Amino acid sequence: MSKSFSAIGQAEQGEEIDREAFTPGIEPQATWCPGCGDFSVLKALKGAMPEVGRTPDETLLVTGIGCSGKLNSYFESYAMHSIHGRSLPIARAAKLANPGLEVIAAGGDGDGYGIGGNHFMHTARENHDMTYIVFDNEIFGLTKGQTSPTSPKGHESKTQPHGSAKDPIRPLSLALTSGASYVARTAAVNPRQATEILTEAIEHDGFAHVDFLTQCPTWNKDAKQYVPYTDVQDSEDFDFDVHDRQEAAEMMHETEDKLYEGEVLTGRFYIDEDRRSYGEEKRSTGEMPEEPLAERYFDEEADWERSYDLLDAHK
Ligand SMILES: Cc1ncc(C[n+]2csc(CCOP(=O)(O)OP(=O)(O)O)c2C)c(N)n1
Ligand code: SF4
Ligand SMILES: [Mg+2]
């Protein structure tokens, strides 16, 4: 854990944190459509934070662009509503500069698995200590229902009027093979499990990926409402070890196939508690300073290294 590093306030020991602390003082009216699965992500996140024991001023939420990207308008914390597909590099930089922050990144399936797919892969590979919530509604919601990387083969939309000829991406398998140390899937229709999984993911030290199935009743009319769902940890039909990479890989593959056959499997798929995060690796080599870089902003005497200073060293 890197809680000793913080340039921003920390909760008092034993302080009770109320989920309502995460509701903005001037609460904007959510513009999500009635019945949208995105409401459940907000609810689960507000429910998870008191369990984790972090306050709004210890938390940074970086979002991408999409209906999902509006999450930080309705959630009280430090926040950045960033660029389409680019929430992860921004979140990574913030976490490295200020390791005491609880960093959460969030965005849609188009945002994270399409335009931002490269960042997803490498943030997982480097095991940056953060939680990445992907609102997976199997379409581009904000821009009115175009086919996304998780749309099923044959999916008809304005961009694919004859039906998509593409096989969907495998988000869980991609996270695992890239190097994520926590991989889970939950669904908007399962609020208890969603809160538990987000709590675990946020507490996890390393890159935690949560594929969050969120129905879009407006633009994905034929989309599943993700019911009934099965929790693979609760069901006797599934027996695999979440700490075993091979078993996890097989379970994920089956889960990804079954989603498009109408069977919704959710739960924890892979957990590696031993792997060190990127920040820990960097500090262990001595390359990262012990004190958070972010604290230098508050130090008028701070001696900043410029890139040309570094170049001089190589003359
Ligand atoms: C660089 C860039 N390309 C395209 C867009 C247009 N755009 C905005 S949101 C979006 C897709 C959103 O889909 P998704 O990420 O799945 O989020 P959702 O709305 O479904 O939550 C697109 C293509 C953009 N804002 N920026
Ligand atoms: S368009 Fe779909 S994803 Fe966007 S707010 Fe409406 S229901 Fe939700
Ligand atoms: Mg989407």
TrEMBL record:
Keyword Transcription regulation included in the entry's annotation: no
Keywords, in A-Z order: Oxidoreductase, Pyruvate
Coiled-coil region(s): none
Q: Return one Gene Ontology term, BP aspect.
A: sulfur compound biosynthetic process
Which SUPFAM superfamilies does the entry mention? Thiamin diphosphate-binding fold (THDP-binding) (SSF52518)
Give positions of region: Disordered: 1-23, 144-169, 276-298
Q: Where is the composition biased (Basic and acidic residues)?
A: 153-169, 276-285
Please name the Pfam families in this protein's record: TPP_enzyme_C
Q: Which GO terms describe its molecular function?
A: oxidoreductase activity, acting on the aldehyde or oxo group of donors, iron-sulfur protein as acceptor; thiamine pyrophosphate binding
- Where the record annotates domain Thiamine pyrophosphate enzyme TPP-binding, the positions are 65-212
InterPro entries in the record: 2-oxoacid:Fd_oxidoreductase, OFOB, THDP-binding, TPP_enzyme_TPP-bd
Per its UniProt record, the required cofactor names are: [4Fe-4S] cluster
Q: Which NCBIfam families match?
A: PorB_KorB
User: What is the recorded name of this protein?
Assistant: Pyruvate ferredoxin/flavodoxin oxidoreductase subunit beta
Q: What is the lineage of its organism?
A: Archaea, Methanobacteriati, Methanobacteriota, Stenosarchaea group, Halobacteria
